[in-house]
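[agent] plan:
  1. take the single chain provided in the ticket
  2. run structure prediction with default settings
  3. attach structure tokens to the ticket
  4. add a short note for the reviewer (M.T.)
[agent] executing step 1
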Amino acid sequence: MKTEYTPDGIGLICNDSGLIIKVLRDDLGVDNGKLVGRTLSALFERQTIEKVLDFILNVKKEKIILDYPLSIHSGNKDSNLYFTGFFLEGKIWMVGLRSPSASLEFINQLQQINNEQANHIRQLIKEGHNENTKESSPDSYAFDELSRLNNELVNLQRELSKKNAELKRLNELKNHFLGMAAHDIRNPLGVIMAYSEFLLDETQDKLSKEHIEFINTINASAHTLLALIEDLLDISHIESGKLNLDLQNTDIVRVAEENISLNRILAAKKDISIKFSCNHRPIIISIDSRKIDQVFNNLISNALKFSNPGSDVNVYIRMEGNRVLTEIIDQGTGITPDFMDKLFQPFAKASSEGTAGEKCTGLGLSIVKRIVEGHGGKISAESQPGKGSRFYFWLPIKY
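[agent] step 2 finished; step 3 output follows
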């Protein structure tokens, strides 16, 4: 008596999202009563998940996919199966077999499927196989092409990760070199400044007016370079993740007043008045007073730099709930709208020089932003060309 051939495999019904709602048959010992309610991805190796998702999408699109190879978890080992899937009555029906083109025999053995569904499925499978005998399956070609593209994407992602790691290493190397170069340049600049100031003090009555101007130019240029070097050192440390804050409970009003007092000397040279007010004192918060003083100095000196003689610069400090708001408002040249988006980027300069020819490095606001954000705060600006600017920042009140 001839024994009817029964191919080994697994039969499943899933919803249109790939969630298993019924196990029709399991000859491979995969189920153990745990598959229903889980996604198809639970059955397959991690590296084939993308192919599983492609299989689901294409079954829904093409209505039937034949002999699609996937590796499934079976017991303690992985088995390579050929899956046939079809989309029927809003559900995904799929069978996986050890050998290709055996899906029809397997369907005939599934007693759980009613006759109408079984007939419909058999017809779909026969039509699919007949189509494959006429010409190469476009689905198979599409899947192969999709697999190839997926592999290329994985390779590109791997290459991108390598490039990112290399860029990170080069950026760290750049910051290290920048810090060393800036540090080495600062010392001879200090010598140039000291000697030029000595010459100005000792030879005012001995040199011609032209020679005095030469020395003043040397001294001013050295000061500009030193400011740039200090900013480069700051930015290289910050970008290296070395923004070390010495947080202490400090009266921010006192820090602001001390800084304003120093900047009034510069303001007097341009006939600019600095006005200060606050709605509470003292305001004790946890800050690095030296770094916050750097923030005040940059914002106030910028306001003076781009203000016209005879105008005012207003500094306000206010407690607002659990934070402190500081505003620096000037009546200067203002900032064009197209520049506002890059205002806090390194080397961004709205103008190459101030209203009295003062130089700027384009690094100060970038450093200020990092310091404020390092304290858990935020900084922003508003401006109108010809009407002045308003810079403001919040710092959280922490004790």
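[agent] step 4 note for reviewer: The first strand starts at residue 9 and ends at 14.
[agent] ticket updated
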